[in-house]
Inverse folding.
């Protein structure tokens, strides 16, 4: 474990020659503003039954690298070097050979299953399409094989599911369907591009379990592209770290995650918030100083929020929510997608009305206010949204963006506004020169700093932050969190911090509220909820969050499996029957003719 | 390095206030504030990007020049109103005919049946057509944008009413409405006609803007503005419409070219500009019988209409490409 020898080959499970290899891969894109050198000569290989994680921040070229393996880069890309899948050299193949290779030799699992699946085709149509195109099975045979595939990835009632459309399945089931499509033609290697980024953490754990059993049972190589170090620790045999188109470090998961050699890897790992480490990872949060008799900054009592829908019964997004945020306190609102956490945040901002219950800010009931009073109240709340790219008006320069709240509330003159903006730019550690720049000229982290600065323009007593760091890269997230804690210490605002990332909540929040399906499951001080959870749902949630340390993650994974067994749930895995036959494409019939025939018989059925 | 970066806004009277954590918080260089700004040596505002792409569109630039020349010549040659132009002949006077009135050096566009100078007539017609086209373009754009933005932003019953009004305008045959109203407005001259045409052609833009606003109003920056307490009017004018400006400008140019054609067809049918005034459509309708015997009487106004409409369409095309970078057609 303490060895630092990088040249050690992968674990024993990886045998045979590489199924996917990049040799001196170099990709340049021709754009309007000159050439962009996206990948700068990298060497990497994936062996059967091995998971190689390609790690890097956005723009490091990891997705571009993986797309070259499928020959799917846009036309303005210039590719040098060799990409080999099995015994085929991808850059030497013509259109037809490429199409034959895709699916048969190499398959892809995409990030967002909702967009990767065609919404107007049934699951069955999409699964059988690949089988028929590659001449593996036709008509009823293909349908039977599709059902078999769905059963393999653990989808109950596969025959019924074949007739359903993607929107009828949950996010996790959709991703299982995408995986079933990927293994349909039994490829040698699967490229998984951020396969769990769009999923909730409990679902992520299931999908990772599935992928792990897939490589064990089918001996498929997996190139896993991710930015999540926890996922790397959970899955990878070997890790390759990419920075600006270069591979800066490769090695086994243990070598890279526990004994990083390159500066960048060290920085990257240091930037990952560690669940269980508590506050202080990126600066200290000020202790709550408000006396109990002080009015709470935000007080929600028996709040019910409903969405009225045309032609359907009203949807109750939040039910009986009671929570309060004391002055100067950070309350973390945690939950999976659809749990109603963003809805609560919007209601606290007065953007959507409450169906019943009360929302009060510093003792004033939001629901009783109108017009001027409401506007005056709004200046005491700041807001930071998730996606900095869409929360800043693209047509306004940064200076105007930050000064906008002052203009709206008619505060000060041009000079004093400018002074306030410069003061805030200093506070969020941005150079003053961004004053005249436009949002699209800044990086994601810089944009999020701008939106935090805007939220603080009017010195709010309450800040509502809706997933403020989840669209950012880890190192950028670390910077923003550091700055956030420093600002909180300085301005002492209360904060409702919405996040799905338990580790971020763990290092920021004083108190934590856990939501599920619009109801509060558990709430209390951070240590109690996150370190000694009482409720089953909280336990599952915490058990499913991966940590960036392979050995600890293995322990956590086993503990999670034990917890699932104790709760009476199955651990997700690939179900391979003993008589499972590996599909063989019918080479003798010739691709085109058989493909067409397949369509005809299918249409005839 | 760009000049923007150096031109700090003047904050002389402001002392920098360094936050407690500002020194050690910049530990991670990647993406942090210490890192240089992206694209430092070439930074463009959105407007500059659009202009850059537009000026690369050869068709649009050529059309701009041609249209510019036509406008300048049309207005300076015979003058407008009381201001005299450089062309010596008057479009109302009849001169002695040279031969059958075919183009000569004296009369470059020829002479009409009564001996009038056809060049000054065509220029007069072009003036009217251009005035109507641009007036219609502006009126329909303002009305369409306003109605579309209000409907898209407020939704609910305001949207229902405005869009049903739009539907009513769409289902009535444009030419029939324009003909009737144009006749009635004919007494008030070309401005009346332009107003009427503008008030019946805003519908497609209203729908486009509404669609655009519907998607923009869901963006987080609009939500952020609302959370600050920004009023609806300010949100519409400052946050929503500037982002829809691409759609609006493109649609405005295209409505200008269709207004030229609409005016032409109205005048051809006899409902548009009334004699003794003239427009390109009136000229064509007046001399259509002369097409075989004296073709220049038909071709000159015809070519004018074609050129103006083509130019405006090309400019609209160039603008659309410039505003929508996704249609990345690199031409070099």
């Amino acid at each position: 474990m303490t060895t630092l020898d990088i040249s050690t080959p992968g674990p024993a499970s990886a045998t045979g020659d590489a199924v996917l290899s990049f040799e001196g891969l170099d990709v340049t894109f021709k754009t309007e503003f000159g050439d962009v050198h996206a990948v700068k000569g990298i060497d990497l290989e994936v062996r059967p039954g091995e998971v190689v994680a390609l790690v890097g921040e956005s723009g490091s070229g990891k997705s571009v690298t993986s797309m070259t393996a499928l020959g799917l880069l846009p036309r303005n890309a210039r590719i040098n070097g060799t990409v080999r899948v099995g015994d085929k050299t991808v850059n030497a193949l013509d259109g037809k050979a490429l199409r034959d290779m895709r699916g048969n030799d190499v398959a892809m699992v995409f990030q967002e299953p909702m967009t990767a699946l065609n919404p107007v085709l049934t699951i069955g149509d999409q699964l059988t399409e690949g089988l028929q195109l590659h001449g593996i099975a036709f008509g009823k045979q293909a349908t039977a094989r599709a059902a078999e595939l769905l059963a393999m990835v653990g989808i109950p009632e596969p025959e019924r599911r074949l007739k359903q459309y993607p929107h009828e399945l949950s996010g996790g089931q959709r991703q299982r369907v995408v995986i079933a499509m990927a293994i349909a033609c039994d490829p040698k290697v699967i490229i998984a591009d951020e396969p769990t980024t769009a999923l909730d953490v409990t679902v992520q754990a299931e999908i990772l379990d599935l992928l792990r059993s897939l490589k064990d049972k089918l001996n498929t190589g997996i190139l896993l592209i991710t930015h999540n170090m926890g996922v790397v620790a959970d899955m990878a045999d070997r890790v390759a770290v990419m920075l600006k188109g270069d591979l800066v470090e490769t090695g086994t998961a243990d070598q890279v995650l526990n004994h990083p050699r390159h500066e960048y890897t060290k920085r990257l790992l240091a930037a990952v918030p560690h669940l269980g480490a508590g506050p202080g990872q990126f600066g200290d949060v000020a202790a709550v100083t408000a006396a109990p008799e002080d009015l709470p900054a935000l007080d929600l009592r028996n709040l019910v929020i409903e969405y009225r829908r045309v032609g359907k019964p009203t949807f109750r997004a939040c039910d009986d929510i009671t929570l309060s945020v004391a002055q100067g306190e950070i309350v973390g609102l945690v939950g999976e997608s659809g749990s109603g956490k963003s809805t609560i945040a919007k209601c606290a901002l007065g953007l959507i009305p409450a169906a019943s219950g009360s929302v009060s800010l510093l003792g004033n009931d939001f629901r009783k206010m109108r017009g001027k009073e409401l506007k005056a109240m709004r200046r005491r709340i700041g807001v930071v949204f998730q996606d900095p790219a869409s929360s800043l008006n693209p047509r306004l320069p940064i200076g105007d963006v930050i000064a906008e709240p002052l203009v709206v509330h008619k505060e000060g003159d041009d000079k004093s506004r400018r002074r306030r903006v410069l003061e805030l730019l200093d506070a969020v550690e941005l150079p003053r020169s961004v004053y005249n720049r436009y949002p699209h000229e800044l990086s994601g982290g810089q944009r999020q700093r701008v939106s935090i600065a805007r939220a603080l323009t009017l010195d709010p007593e309450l800040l509502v932050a809706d997933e403020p760091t989840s669209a950012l890269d880890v190192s950028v997230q670390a910077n923003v969190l550091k700055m956030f804690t420093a600002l909180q210490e300085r301005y002492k605002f209360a904060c409702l911090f919405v996040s799905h990332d338990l580790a971020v909540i763990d290092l920021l929040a004083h108190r934590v509220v856990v939501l599920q399906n619009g109801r509060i499951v558990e709430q209390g001080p951070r240590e109690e909820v996150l370190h000694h959870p009482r409720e089953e749902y909280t336990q599952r949630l915490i058990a499913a969050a991966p940590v960036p340390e392979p050995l600890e993650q293995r322990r956590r994974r086993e503990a999670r499996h034990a917890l699932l067994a104790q709760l009476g749930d199955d651990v997700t895995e690939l179900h391979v029957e003993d008589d499972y036959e590996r599909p063989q494409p019918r080479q003798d019939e010739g691709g085109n003719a058989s493909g067409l025939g397949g369509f005809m018989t299918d249409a005839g059925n | 390095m760009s000049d923007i970066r150096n031109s700090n806004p003047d904050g002389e009277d402001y002392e920098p206030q360094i936050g407690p954590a500002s020194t050690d918080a910049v530990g991670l260089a990647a993406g942090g504030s210490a890192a240089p700004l992206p694209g430092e040596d070439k930074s463009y505002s959105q407007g500059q990007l659009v202009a850059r792409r537009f000026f690369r569109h050869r068709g649009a630039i050529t059309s701009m020049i041609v249209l510019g020349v036509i406008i300048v010549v049309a207005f300076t040659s015979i003058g407008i109103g009381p201001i005299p132009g450089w062309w010596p002949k008057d479009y109302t006077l009849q001169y002695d005919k040279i031969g059958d009135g075919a183009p000569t050096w004296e009369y470059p566009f020829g002479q009409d049946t009564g001996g009038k100078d056809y060049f000054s007539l065509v220029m007069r017609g072009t003036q009217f057509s251009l005035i109507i086209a641009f007036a219609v373009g502006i009126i329909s754009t303002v009305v369409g944008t306003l109605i579309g933005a209000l409907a898209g932003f407020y939704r609910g019953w305001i949207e229902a009413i405005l869009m049903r009004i739009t539907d009513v305008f769409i289902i009535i045959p444009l030419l029939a409405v324009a003909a009737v109203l144009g006749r009635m407005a004919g007494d008030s001259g070309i401005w009346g006609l332009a107003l009427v045409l503008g008030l019946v052609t805003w519908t497609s833009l209203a729908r486009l803007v509404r669609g655009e606003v519907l998607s923009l109003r869901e963006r987080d920056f609009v939500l952020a503005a609302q959370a600050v307490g920004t009023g609806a009017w300010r949100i519409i004018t400052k946050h929503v419409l500037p982002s829809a400006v691409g759609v609006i400008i493109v649609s405005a140019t295209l409505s200008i070219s269709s207004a030229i054609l609409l005016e032409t067809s109205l005048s051809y049918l006899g409902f548009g500009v009334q004699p003794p005034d003239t427009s390109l459509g009136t000229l064509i309708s007046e001399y259509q019988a002369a097409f075989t015997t004296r073709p220049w009487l038909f071709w000159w106004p015809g070519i004018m209409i074609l050129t103006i409409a083509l130019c405006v369409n090309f400019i609209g095309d160039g603008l659309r490409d410039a505003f929508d970078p996704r249609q990345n057609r690199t031409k070099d």
